[in-house]
Fold each of these.
Amino acid sequence: MRTIKDIKDALRGRRAVNVLRLAANVADAETITLGSEVYEIDTAADPGAITAGRFRVNCSGGVTPTIAAPAIVAAINANTLLGLTAVAISVNEILVYTNSDNSALAIACSETLAGANNQWASATFTGGQIAKPQGLSLVQRVPNATEVAIGNLHCVFPFAVGAAMAQVRSSTGASKAWDGVLTITGARVTLDNSGATDWAATDTVVVLAHQ
């Protein structure tokens, strides 16, 4: 059975992410591409020399992952127009994610890094999900005698249910430790009384569901 946190997390959007791994040294003129943005490694002294239209990654101080990773992070954060944030989560890993919680962007990623295992974890950003505030509905009612006898209570919602949670309250309003099984079948949510603690005709059953 889902918890309130599960419901909230599913309703919220998730940020799309990717990880650039730097296991070896980078080299001058190598590139890192995020969608339409191209970042070029530059080992020349300031102000540097890169291909027009690209963003400079200042590696004039060295090409090891220890130096290159922060330089790549700084270049992305200073120049991106895609709404991205880069973070060096270790010496050898750069996490890049979308800034919006309401983003499912599958941004294409590539690179020309020749060092062994210097590459993106994925060809595109992954894990993003658009927030889904719609399709949230709550049912609250008292089971009837037939439902108690059969041991099943059904609630039907106006959408295909993706996740649901249930609460059972006694006649005094106290939460009851119902431990049956909640199942989802399309638009229907069913609560059975297979556990040691059942709901009764004097209880109130609350079911919260969303798409």
Amino acid sequence: MKKNIKRYIQTNILPYILQLFVRLIYFTNRKKFHYTTNIQNDKPIIVAMWHGDLLMQPLNYRAFRPNGDVKVIVSEHRDGETIRKIVEYLGVGALSGSSTRGGAKAMIGAIKALKNSTDVAITPDGPKGPIYSIADGIVVISQKTNTPVVPFSSIPSSYWQFRSWDKFIVPKPFGTIDFYVGEPICLQNLDMEDAKQIIKTKMMENQLTK
């Protein structure tokens, strides 16, 4: 009974409260948007964001593509279910799977989504790191669908930082958040290691790394 109550709270009540908190942070901060103009609005993209910087990215995406359709790859465990419900409240769909669990299903789902003109969001160092690493999956998905990888990031003027492997960032209210959407990265005809290095370099350009 207690286990069922705990699960209900974690997968139903907690996501609703947390998405309200994310909205509170967003709306109480001054926002500066630094967006590329070199992306075709009628073509799908792969949104790349570091695991420690994912909190504000659903709203960053919504500001960049107000009418866009996007799905994020979420790990198949209980924490993943909580994350899935939070992002759904924020207007983002979910694909089950990760590099450590359900990877093949996630890759197939991502490829199908992109071919149906749905954007796909990936944390290439998630769900367990190491921090700022690039898993093979994002390269494979990009090359199989000929879809560019686009770095998304945010830098808050003040924040809390967890002592977790990903150094997870939570912006504080009433500051300023700089939101970034970088230039699209084409990975066609690159080998795996070169492609991963290019993604990492581009993703680190506008990233808080303290």
